[in-house]
Amino acid sequence: MAVDAKTVKELRRISGAGMMECKKALDETGGDIDAALKHLREQGVKVAAKKASRQANEGLVYAYIHGPGKLGVLVEINCETDFVARTDAFQDFCKQVAMHIAASNPEFVGREQVPENRVQEEKEVLFSQLADSGKPENIKEKIVEGRLDKFYSEICLLDQEWIHDSEVGKVSDALTAAIAKVGENMVINRFARFQIGG
Which residues contact residue 30 at a Cβ distance below 8 angstroms, ignoring those fewer than 6 apart? Predict the structure, then answer.
C-alpha cells in the first residue's frame, strides 16, 4: 500500500521526525499513524542508547523568564558539538525544558542526585504508614517501591510527566526523542529556578 504525502506530513507534524523517517515508519506499519509513531519512538530509543556513551561537552545555558519577570529558570543542556547547540531543534528543546522546570518545580535532575538520607526518610515514612495494614513484608516493600516512584516523579525532573505533551511520557522520554532528532547525545546537566518570594 502506497502511503500518501498528506499522511507523511501529518506524522511529521506530530512526531517532529524527518520526512524520510516518517515515510519509512508508515511504509513499515501499513500507513497506520499510531503504529508509525510507536515505531519512531522505538527507533529513537535505539538511537539514543547508541549515543549515550558519547561525550557531551558542548551545549547551552538557556535562560527563560516567565510572565512579568517573577519566575525565571537557567538550565544547562549539553550536546556533543557547538554546531548542534546552535540549531533550532536543540534550542527549542532547551526552551521546553526550561518552561517545564518553571511549571513543575523539580528539585533534582535525576534520582542519583537525591541525597540518600532523604530517600531513607521517605522510605521510613512510607513503611510507617503501612505498619497497621496487616500486609506481609514483601507486599509492603512492593507498595513502598511504587510510592517511591511517585516521590521521585514529584522531585526529579527526568521522572516528571512531560508537560508539553502527555503522550510523550516522562521528561526522560522527551530527551530520548530529542537525541534521536538532533542525532547527538544530549544531557540535562543542571538547573536553577528563581521565584520572587520563593
Answer: 1
Q: The C-alpha cell of 154 is what?
A: 514529584
Sign of CA dihedral 150, 154, 160, 166: positive
Residues, the chain, total? 198
- Which pLDDT score is estimated for 16? 63
DSSP state string for 28-57: HTTT-HHHHHHHHHHHHHHHHHHHTTS---
SS3 62: strand
What's phi and psi for 73, nearest 5 deg?
Answer: -135, 135
CA–CA dist 188, 198 (Å, integer): 23
Sheet with 71-79, strands from edge to edge, namely 58-66, 71-79, 187-195
Q: What is the per-residue pLDDT for 155?
A: 96
CB 170 within 8 A of CB 159: yes
Report the chain (198 residues): mean pLDDT per 10 consecutive residues. Answer: 77 69 83 80 62 78 93 96 93 97 97 94 89 82 90 96 91 90 91 90
pTM for the predicted model, two decimal places:
0.72
CA distance linking residue 145 with residue 79, whole number of Å: 33
pLDDT (0 to 100) of residue 53: 64
Which runs of consecutive H residues, i.e. helices, occur in the chain? 5-15, 19-28, 33-51, 82-85, 88-104, 116-129, 137-155, 171-182
